[in-house]
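Changelog-adjacent note: as of this version, every example in the card shows the full chain rather than a window. The one below runs 77 residues end to end.
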Amino acid sequence: MCRSIKTLRPPVLPTEATEEDIRAAALQYVRKVSGFRAPAAHNREVFERAVDEVAEATRRLLDGIEVRGAAAKSVRQ
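Full-length structure tokens:
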């Protein structure tokens, strides 16, 4: 199921990861961990909150990674 999560850092990804890329990876992660493709109504809020938190952690991770050999660390706009 998590096969759709792609590596989001250079040089694997030729360009900087988009917010859409990050959100899609976060959604796949939460789906895998929870075991739900889509949550029931009574779990929707906690599911969406988890996706938001994983996406934010992913942004921080990508912003902090320094790729050796890279000319300059890219800065997320």
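Structural remarks: Residues 72-77 have pLDDT under 50 and may be disordered.
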